[in-house]
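Internal ticket - ligand job 257, pyridoxal-5'-phosphate:
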Amino acid sequence: MSAREPGPFPTHAQTVAEIAANLAAVRARIDAAAARAGRDGAGIRLLPVTKTVTEPRLRAAWEAGVTQMGENKVQEALGKARAMADLAIHWAVIGHLQTNKAKDVAAFAHEFQALDSLRVAEALDRRLQAAGRGLDVYVQVNSSGEDTKFGLVPEAVPAFLAALPAYSSLRVRGLMTLAAHTEDRERVIDCFRLMRDLRDAGLQAGTVGDGELSMGMSGDFELAVEHGSTCVRVGQAVFGRRPTPDSMYWPGRRDGN
Ligand SMILES: *Cc1c(COP(=O)(O)O)cnc(C)c1O
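stdout (structure tokens):
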């Protein structure tokens, strides 16, 4: 069994019962992985990733107990937040942000997990100050070295963390990564280990908040939990396999954020 293909993802989950069943299955797998590592699964956060999932299905997810939703594209997230303003959803933006979209994140998001430049930190802080809001942030690290991935190079993380207190509306919670996209488990584990080391160094230096580690997706969340993840971001294992390309289901979203 490879790191990325843990068996087929569930089919398109639509009803409250289907989504609830998938959530329970993922939660059970988190708990089992935690137990293997001598950890308590109750302390591990499951952040459902809702990109490409339509509003009716998200309302069903809410009924199934989902109160936090992760989106990688700001415009998609903002549209959904407005459409479902009647629900007290905790919105987490988990994808790369361009500086000119900082105002949108500052307007509605509770959390931003892909901080990787001081320009974005500055832009967010300025907008947040103006709005009188704060924002939980995770610093994204490119732990795999893959050039398709965003995030800081690992060597840049300590200095970057040390610079963040200047942006007082940003509450640094920890680090985030997408592990290597490979069937080689050892390479995936190397990514998680690297993150743990960076987090531990940040805790020593007092620069990484509580030292949360957001890592693990549908294909590798059990491995991530076994290696210290405190927040897994899971889409397909909850909602079903995502059709590709993502933008097919969200017209006009081919341009990133
Ligand atoms: C899509 C996405 C996920 C979830 O991926 P799944 O395969 O659906 O579990 C996690 N993190 C980020 C940043 C994503 O864009």
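Auto-summary: The longest strand covers residues 170-176. The first helix runs from residue 16 to 36.
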